[in-house]
Design brief:
By secondary structure, the chain is an alpha+beta fold. Helices cover 33% and strands 23% of the residues. It has two domains: 2-269, no CATH class; 295-407, Jelly Rolls. Strand 2 (41-44) and strand 3 (48-52) form a beta hairpin. The longest helix has 21 residues, at 56-76.
């Protein structure tokens, strides 16, 4: 999956833009001039013309997905789509007659079950043609490239271009949870993490490998969905696409340590359903030590990741804990539980109050705290706590526990 931009100034380019606007219909439909069963058949929607061997029902479904995605990204990038995006999408390209796909490289990419977007660009506008396998979300991925090329005349540097295109095939309106192919999750969880510098500042090129695409997606998803970075990510992207003098380092260099920590935190816990917005780290909270015999109280939400207690702790210190209130691990559940959790459930999903120590941008192993009793601190640092729950289902959790900590005398 890749984007190929050809820059030109020929009269043919202008003609392409004019002709493209003629192919425009309010709904997906097959033209009457094409015999039933012919390969390819043409289907149209408001912003796409689709040449394909998909069935009419499959073509209609794909066009609906493409229009839906285009609506989301055009709002995100603050630019309504220009012109028509032409797409060649094939299930079995071997059955397509010679010459039915006008670009040989596009046909080769489809045969490899991949995709490419070829764009002729003049200034800051372009005319794009998508060539894509019908498998997975290849057509959606390529349509993001096509939109960017036709609206901005560029798709940006590789990390941004391919990361956002990968997001495009998964994007769902208003949804912030991870929903990707399981092989992407498996690769990231089982591989040595690729550094931010290796993603942003390498000489990698578009169309290199799905593994590299996975890392670019992970970075873009984090920056787009984590409240600590999302406010800067959209302006950065718009600056990139509008070819302004902006860069990743300018936007985030002052918080490199914070991004690196949350990026690794995300990769290590990646699963479908993970919510960066619910796991965003509270970097503004102040932490101070507690004098022996003093107490502090704090609310802890079941539906969030690690939350700061504000308590600076030292190894070997002991604290008494007393929790009040209940929470649930399922919105439909009628059975609330305390911070002691529920006996007999999976350890990673039992509702118990647990803690971890944050120090020098490192997080300790989790340790159990529970609802009452005492616990000792395993290392120096800042104490964070959470409801123990599967990372992919935090959005299903409800309720808040009030935690009272008393420093032992």
């Amino acid at each position: 999956m890749s984007s190929c931009i050809r820059r030109g100034t020929s009269p043919f380019f202008a003609a392409c833009l004019v002709l493209a606007t003629v192919v425009n219909s309010a709904s997906a439909q097959a033209p009457t001039a094409v015999p039933a069963g012919a390969i390819p058949q043409d289907f149209r929607s408001q912003h796409f013309v689709l040449h394909t061997d998909l069935t009419a029902a499959e073509a209609k479904e794909l066009l609906e997905k493409l229009e839906y995605m285009l609506g989301i990204i055009s709002v995100y990038w603050q630019k309504p789509p220009k012109g028509i995006i032409e797409c060649y999408v094939a299930k079995d390209v071997a059955k397509w007659p010679a010459g039915s796909i006008p670009d040989d490289y596009g046909r080769q990419k489809i045969a490899r079950r991949e995709g490419v977007t070829v764009s002729l660009v003049l200034g800051n506008e372009g005319k794009s043609t998508v060539y894509a396998s019908a498998e997975g979300g290849v057509a959606q991925h390529e349509a993001v490239h096509a939109y960017c090329a036709q609206n901005f005349g560029t798709t940006g540097p590789t990390w941004y271009s391919e990361g956002m295109a990968e997001m495009g095939q998964y994007w769902r309106k208003g949804a912030l949870d991870v929903q990707v192919h399981e092989y992407v999750v498996k690769h990231i969880r089982e591989s040595e993490p690729k550094s931010l510098n290796a993603i942003v500042n390498s000489n990698e090129t578009t169309g290199d490998s799905w593994e590299n695409y996975a890392w670019r997606w992970a970075l873009c998803h984090l920056l787009a969905s984590n409240s600590n970075y999302a406010a800067s990510f959209r302006p950065l992207g718009l600056g990139i696409l509008n070819q302004k003098p902006v860069s990743f380092e300018q936007a985030y260099g002052h918080m490199a340590n914070e991004i690196s920590f949350e990026y690794l935190f995300f990769l290590q816990r990646l699963c479908n359903g993970f919510r960066n917005d619910l796991c965003a780290w509270d970097w503004k909270r102040k932490f101070t030590a507690m004098a022996p015999g003093t107490a502090r109280t704090m609310p802890v939400q079941a539906g969030r990741g690690f939350q700061p207690t504000g308590v600076l702790v030292k190894v070997g210190q002991s604290y008494d804990v007393n929790c009040t209130g209940t929470w649930k691990l399922d919105k439909k559940s009628t059975k609330p539980m305390t911070a002691a959790g529920e006996e007999g459930t999976k350890p990673e999903d039992d509702g118990k109050l647990i803690g971890a120590i944050f120090s020098d941008f490192q997080l300790s192993e989790e340790f159990e705290i529970g609802a009452t009793g005492s616990f000792s601190i395993p290392s120096d640092g800042q104490l964070f706590v959470r409801c123990r729950s599967d990372w992919g289902s935090l959005g299903d959790n409800t309720g808040t526990i009030t935690v009272k900590l008393t420093a032992a005398k």
